[in-house]
């Protein structure tokens, strides 16, 4: 029986991964999460759970903690929509890149054989559309790409490294407020307009999968048969219009969704960028440049990931309904 350690065990991905690994009955699971400790009955009693800030531990403490672990999963870090004080590039690099590279080096020292990173599918679009200069314009995407590159560079000398590029993930963690709450509040305030082109047709969309599927994919990535590299995951490609309508129905909202031309859309973004600037902050997604991403189809065809990682079909629309019904 192998041992797996999941950093970020109380988050959406970590919670799903814990269950997925335990359900195989082939793994012992240890989680490490930031406080607070959830209420009784939320954590899976089959796993060992630890709480604290791993970034505040010494190298010797981390190596000791990781001794005996076969697989380490990084499902932590700061998400894309956090707006830190300037400069954002330095903030996201320190929060999301440095810990991954450093932990990979310490994991090797501890005898861990495989390090799996949960990163962003924006890395895929960075490679697909180099003309968009995504890493130059968006501090979060810059850090996400660096995070993946630096982890893969650590492959070797006893440690295998894998990066899973995740799309938008939907699911629930018992006793925890969904990360989609902010989205729901902005939708209620009509702050999520649809961009329409010169034919008055809504454009843009994204890829989604359930947290359960991500958990299954992580179990797949833990297999020694899986080649160390990057894999771009996904399941359902959904237009922005269809997603908004599903969220609206689940919220039982009668609010009309506003439509904007690209020019109007960018004007709103410029106002948002100005307000962020006045506050001395900087967004992970530069607001004006982000409008172009929002008007594109951020769709994924995850043939290789499905074949190699063997995650299963799941009802994304039902998961979206369940998430927004709770908000």
From TrEMBL:
Residues 4-173 form the NAD-dependent epimerase/dehydratase domain. Pfam families: Epimerase. It comes from the Bacteria. It comes from Listeria newyorkensis. This is NAD-dependent epimerase/dehydratase domain-containing protein.
